[in-house]
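User: structure tokens for this one?
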Amino acid sequence: MRITTILFVLTVLILTGCKSQDPVVKAANEAEQKAWFTKAVQALNDRKFVLEADQVTFKRGRFVYVNASTNFVSLHENRATIQLAFNSPYAGPNGIGGVTVDGSASNIKMDTDNKGNITISMSVMGAGISARVIIRMANNSNKCSAIVYPNFNSNVVTFSGYLYAEEDSNVFKGRSL
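Assistant:
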């Protein structure tokens, strides 16, 4: 008897915590995500976008949560910028605790798979960078990731965050190399 009472109380507690979302709120959230996705696709087509990263993953899976306004991958027509900055007392080469590299983007290719997921790949060459960058964005969301594959070493870095058009972005660019 005691076990059934405990099971009943646990079931009631679990079920009260499992509320379904209001259909109006759910529809509004889906419409907002669709609008951000549409703006992100337009920015990708125009080649004027910024991926604001809130998480950076390194070579062996170690990751760190970072400030999205100082960690980003951007493309303006054929000019790419990659910035990585940490909250540290050391100013770094870019003046804000990390490194900023600019380069020319070439071989820019955009593909959409049969599920609607978008992949952009490009080569970036500049004074401080020579890398292949692959950006993947899921269908109906502006959440995406950019994987930076350096050409001269194996220190792969993945930026995860949200992709915005340049005019909707709020990033602070440090001094570039």
